[in-house]
Amino acid sequence: MKYSVRKYYKNECVVFKSTKATFGGLSNMAPGFPIKAYGLWIRNSEALYQALRFPDYPEIQQAILRINSPITAKRYGRKHIDKTRTDWTNHRFNIMRFCIAVKLEQNKESFSKLLKSTENKPIVEYSDKDKVWGALKVGDYYEGTNALGRLLMELREKVYTEEFELIIPKIPNFRLLRNEIKKEDFNTMSNKA
Fold it and tell me: How far apart are CA 186 and CA 168, in angstroms?
């Protein structure tokens, strides 16, 4: 999957950067949207995303999932970048789509409320340097691929139309902690405390 670069007029979008700002909960780094799988509480969708880089290294996945800080989890993953799945570039957007869908599945009320509060405006992750997942400020615009913002808009549409369903992407070797990922491992009903 490829996304092209887009421009978003600053005054017409919902922008997030800091997790403490009004729309900060849209960030993968945001606290308050825990995920449970295989009996383990995952503090945020960023940790899940980082762990899914390493399907052949459950010990790296476990270490990432146990780290309190999403930034620290990301840095830990970067220390092991040489062990990243070889097809990561081909699947990373679908893996992110899955991670934010799990965030919604397990935090339906609060996360769907946040998504709806963005109304129908473009969602932009503002970044100073990452124009793939986010967009850079360029004059009166944000410019970049804004992949996370676009995936969030896609998810928001499913919330509005009540067509949301957790779907497991067709990705080879899609594993977490030695388990081939299945829908029932991440749905709300099988992961109640």
Answer: 10
Q: Cβ distance 115 to 100 under 8 Å?
A: no
> pLDDT of 32-66, one tens digit each?
999 999 989 999 999 999 999 999 999 999 999 99
Q: Of 30, 145, 169, nearest to 91 (Cα)?
A: 169
Candidate CATH numbers 3.40.50.2000, 3.40.50.720, 1.10.357.40, 3.30.457.10; the one for domain 6-191: 1.10.357.40
Angle at Cα 40 formed by Cα 34 and Cα 41, nearest 5°? 20
Give the residue carrying structure tokens 């676009």. 150
Q: Give, to the nearest 10 degrees, the angle between helix 147-160 and helix 108-117.
A: 110
Strand partners for 175: 180
Report the SS3 class of residue 39. Answer: coil
pTM: 0.94
Crossing angle (nearest 10°) for helices 58-66 and 70-79: 160
SS3 139: coil
